[in-house]
Amino acid sequence: MKSLTLSHAHTLTLVFMNLEILTPERKLFSDEVYGVQLPGVSGSFEVLDKHAAMISALKSGRIKVLNDKNHSTLFEIRSGFVEVIANRVTVLVEGGKAI
């Protein structure tokens, strides 16, 4: 959990989770994030803080990492899998690159 001070009287608390995006060759991304949007084989979906445990297959498309509510990072992938457990998201991908 991180706090962002907006002014002397207001503090906004954003809740973060740990995200890793890995290829067989290297680590593409590893940090605390607000959320992540993923290209699931049955349609796109989003994972936020305290998401239920799951494993899902991913199709070719874009991963949008929500660094916070105002900033994001994009990755292009060919395929992969995501595992969500205990506020930790691990994404294993083929053909991943930052865009």
Topology (elements, then pairings):
Elements: E1 2-5, E2 11-14, E3 17-22, E4 27-33, E5 35-40, E6 43-48, E7 54-58, E8 61-66, E9 72-77, E10 79-85, E11 88-94, E12 97-98
Parallel strand pairs: 3-11
Antiparallel strand pairs: 1-2, 3-4, 5-6, 5-8, 7-10, 8-9, 9-12, 10-11
Sheet-strand content, in percent, reads over 45%
Count of DSSP H/I helices: 0
The span between the termini is 28 Å
State the secondary-structure class: mainly beta
Q: Measured on Cα atoms, how large is the radius of gyration?
A: 14 Å
List unreliable stretches of 5+ residues: none
The share of residues in helices is under 10%
Q: What is the 3D shape?
A: globular
The overall pLDDT, averaged over residues, is: 90
Protein described:
- With 99 residues, the chain is mainly β.
- The protein has strands at 2-5, 11-14, 17-22, 27-33, 35-40, 43-48, 54-58, 61-66, 72-77, 79-85, 88-94, 97-98.
- The protein has a 5-stranded mixed β-sheet with strand order 4-3-11-10-7, with no helix packed on it. A 5-stranded antiparallel β-sheet has the order 6-5-8-9-12, with no helix packed on it. A two-stranded antiparallel ribbon has the order 1-2.
- Strand 10 and strand 11 form a beta hairpin.
- The chain is globular and about 35 Å long.
